[in-house]
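S.,

Sequence below, as promised.
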Amino acid sequence: MAAMPACLLLLLTLPFVAASLAAAQSRPFGGAPPGYARYVSDASETAAEEEYDYIVVGGGAAGCPLAATLAGPGGGRVLLLERGGAPAEFPALATAGGFVRTLALADPSPESDAPAQGFSSEDGVANVRARVLGGGTAINAGFYSRAHPDWFYGHGEGAEVPDWDMHLVNASYEWVEQELTFQPEVHGWQAAVRAALLEANVTPWNGFTVDHVTGTKIGATTFDASGRRHSAADLLAFARPGRLRVAVRATVTRVIINPIDPADRRGRSRPAVGAVGVVYQDRLLQQHHALLRPGGEVILSAGALGSPQLLLLSGIGPASDLASLGISVSADSPDVGKHMFDNPRNGISIIPSVPIDHSLIQVVGIPSANGTASYLEAASYIVPLAPMLRPGPFMSPSSPLYVTMATIMEKVPGPLSEGSLWLSSPNPLETPSVRFNYFSRPEDLAQCVVGVRRVAQVLRSRTMDIFRSPLGSSSQGRRGPVRRDFRIVGATLPLDWSTNDTSVADFCKRTVTTLWHYHGGCVVGRVVDKDFRVTSARSLRVVDGSTFSVTPGTNPQATIMMMGRYVGLKMIGDRHSRRLVNNTS
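The prediction came back faster than expected:
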């Protein structure tokens, strides 16, 4: 396999420069506003102090369906706080073609308004977190697939599992799917990958399904037939009018934690403190207080970075760490920020010899249904090459030259390797520090070796021959057969990939990157209980991927959105049960 020169690799990996930036500036879409727009306002327009039944922090994959459900039938008055803007302000988010642009323009600055915020883990791996209403569902590749069935019955070493009501789980999945998911049309690169996976014995062929099943399948997408993205924000339209307020550009600085009167604790094992509201600031840096009505709850759905960060900023975490930063300790909870995970991704990128379309992940190979083997996925991107070159008589900054890259990747399931998150400072605007310790467990590295070999087997299939480029004639002379091989972008597989575990393992460690499926930090059984209640504080829950110790299948967004709906319905049921008890006592 032939590797591309470093200069060309640089051009491909930095595809967007000043000439392209103007097209990505925030501006509203044309056409009718989304159905949830009536609930959305800038945080600067909210009152200095108001009361709510539920305060949801984080308008992402879990927070949006959760808020919509809590503001629906049987619910109450809900405030949803999102630190970013609304999706309609960022045109690049609307279509699949904007996926690469959004990631390329991820801005690490806490003051930036970009919908994707870049950061690097202490491992040195570049990563991204969402900063927009809809969260990751507003900036991701749109692939939708349910969790593998075993995930609901036990995952992670020594981790507890919620008592999932599978009837309600399936109903919650279906509620999300009716609004947000579509069957994609598979052609070009995705069709070739489908055939190559089957040729590489990732069988059987399962066709289109949202279920996690062994073999090769087409998953659902959140892009409709016209190519327009649907995100978790669209689910907010299901709230009842008058019950929901969504404040964007609202940065929560802390949860307000107060002591609980010992007479009201009902047993020594009950928490000594409880949440009574949150403090948030708007884009003008004005402070606001959102307070709970009696019986209300604060729910953190700020993601695997944001939720543990907010607990720490609110004084819930390892006491010694908090004290060293001058944060008053509300509850000593040593596992907050611990047990952080990120699924390693490794792959091969090529410049195909024939034109192919832009495609995000649609086809997936699942060698094992229970999550014990790396998942195989693919994508193709059309990126501008010319803006990095000097304009000439046949090329101007406004008419760039484009090049197509195609990628086949493997994602290690689990993983078992774990790291931790901690505050670099008490400033809530700063991204916390995190280390994932990729491949610190030999089992994960062994999974990667097997997964990378499967990638190589897919590339060696007859289906992939059409994408090989001519590299000159053979040793037989100019009239001999033309040798063809892949034009590789970046690192190439070792020549002895099929026999040398050590060389493939070295490739895994040298080329590791992320698929943005990081999770943990508020794991069930460590920080929250089986109902996602924070064990050290009353009236406070965490409902998002930070509670996971294992990623739920090929892509977590389906399960996180389901989780928001599921927990919302459970909370409404609990609220009515308490009312019945109070009315009969």
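The two ends are 76 Å apart (CA to CA).

Coffee later?
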